[in-house]
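Re-run with default settings, no changes from the original entry. Doing this only to confirm the output is reproducible before filing.
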Amino acid sequence: MSDAPLHRLERKVDALLALHQQLDQENRLLKAERAAWQAERAKLIKQNELARDRVEAMIERLKAMEHSG
């Protein structure tokens, strides 16, 4: 009996294991990148809200100055 089919199966299993490791690593990297993008997005949203609040406050002060003057 030949060992060739068994060796082919072993090579296929090894290839699948290598692919699994590669995909697992890629998946972890993508999850880390997603977390970084989400943090950056949250930071930008907060900065945008602060800027909007400042602009609204300036507009209110200008309106107050306009009415008092």
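The mean pLDDT is 96. The CA atoms of residues 19 and 27 lie 12 Å apart.
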